[in-house]
Amino acid sequence: HMNVAYYVLAFDFATDAFLDYIGLDHGYKAKAEVTTFVGDMNVTYVREVVEGAPLRFTTQLLEYDSKKFRYFHSMYHAEEGFLAATCEWMNLHFDTRIRRVAPWPDEIRARIAEFADNQGPQPWPEQAGQRMHVKQPIFSGKPKPS
Q: pTM value?
């Protein structure tokens, strides 16, 4: 059984590959004195994979604006083809000199737009934007509407 931390680590490696592809690699970040921060992340487990299983990832850009983007990874078993898990991320572009979220530079924003254009129309992932909840709770601490 692959532990939850390793699912997140595997998705983090997929994120690194995506960031490198759009030009947000370590070299750019060091030179420009910027980084990206994860503002939100949600993992959905669909089917178990065991430690050491061959994995394949896809990435879909869901939306972006002048300072952040939201994207969605799907993890598949590379040999058997089944969907094992998904992970949705919101990343913020952060200027380390001023310690604030900052706009994408033109060349990075262009790469993000190019990625979006090249992925073509895709269905919205079923797991994207889902909120955590228990369908029929025995107990809920949530206040009842008045």
A: 0.89
Average pLDDT over residues 26-42: 91
**Nearest residue to 105 via CA among 15, 34, 26:** 34
Residue 88 exposed, middle or buried by CB count within 10 Å (0-12, 13-18, 19+): buried
pLDDT digits (tens, 9 = 90+) for 104-130: 999 999 999 999 999 989 999 999 998
Question: Closest by alpha carbon to 28, among 102, 116, 107, 112?
Answer: 107
Residues 84 and 80: their CA atoms lie apart, in Å, by 10
Which DSSP string do the residues of 127-140 spell out, in sequence order? TTTPPP--SS-S--
Structure tokens at 141: 């601490």
For residue 25, give the 3-state DSSP assignment: coil
Q: Other C-beta atoms within 10 Å of 58: how many?
A: 14
